Amino acid sequence: MSAAIRITVSRTAGSVPREAGTQMLVYNDRIEGTIGGGTLEWQAMTEARRMLAEGRKTFSMTYPLGPALGQCCGGSVTLDYEAAETIETPQSRPLWIYGAGHVGRAIVNVMAPLPQFDITWVDTSADRFPDTEVTVLVASDPVHVVKHAPENADHLILTYSHEIDLALCHALLSQRFGSIGLIGSATKWARFKRRLAALGHSPEQIARIACPIGDPVLGKHPAEIALGVGAAMITQSREQSKDRTA
C-alpha cells in the first residue's frame, strides 16, 4: 500500500478547467490524473504533499481562479482533500517537457501513449497547448516549477526562448534529476556550456546535459526529432529496468 491524497473537485462556479467529480491522486513522488493543470493544480499538489508530511487526513478549500491564482478561467473551484491508501503499482518514469511548440507537441505525441512514462508538460500560456490527456502546467516563468519535479525525473528543454532554456538548465543542474535533454545546434550548445560554467557549474555537471537531442541520421523535422528522442528514452528506460532487476 502507498500513502496518497485524493483531491476531488466537489463544487464549481463560472468558467473552470474541469467539472465537479474530477479527481487526482497525489503521492510524495508522483501524481495520477489531473484536475485541469495550471496554477490551481500546482497549488493543490503542494497542499496535498504538505498534508502527507504533516499526517493530516482531510482538508477543503475554495479557490477563486482569477483573483487568487491569476488564471484566465475566472470561476471558482472547491477542492476536497482526503487521505487514501492505494495499491502500489509499477511506477512510470516522470518525464517533464518544457515547451509546447512543434517539437514539444511531436515528442508528446510519441511519448504519451507509452505507459512507462508519466508526462508533465510545461509552458508559459494555456493557449500554447493542444487538447491533451497529459498533465499540463502553465507557468509565466517555467523555472519556478522545476523544484516540484521528482528527483528521478527526465527533462526535455525545448522552449521558444534561449534565455528560458538556459535558466532551466541552470535550475536543473542545481538540484537532483534523472537526465536533461536540450534542443539546439552545436553553436547554441557551445554558448550554453560557457554560460553555465560562468554560473558555477562544473564540466562534469554540464556534460550530463544531452544536446542536441534526437538522432541526426533521422533528420531535423519535429517528427524525426521526436522519433529519435523516443527511441533513446525507451532504450534508456529498459536498460535502467534491467539494472534494477539484475
Task: Write up this protein.
The protein is an alpha/beta fold and 246 residues long. The chain has 2 domains: 2-86, no CATH class; 93-245, NAD(P)-binding Rossmann-like Domain (Rossmann fold, 3-Layer(aba) Sandwich). 35% of the residues lie in helices and 26% in strands. The strands form 2 sheets. The chain has a 6-stranded parallel β-sheet with strand order 8-7-6-9-10-11, sandwiched between helices. Strands 3-2-1-5-4 form a 5-stranded antiparallel β-sheet. Residues 5-60 form the XdhC- CoxI domain.
Question: What brief labels describe this structure?
Answer:
246 residues; alpha/beta; Rossmann fold; 2 domains; 6-stranded parallel beta sheet; 5-stranded antiparallel beta sheet; 7 helices; 11 strands; 26% strand
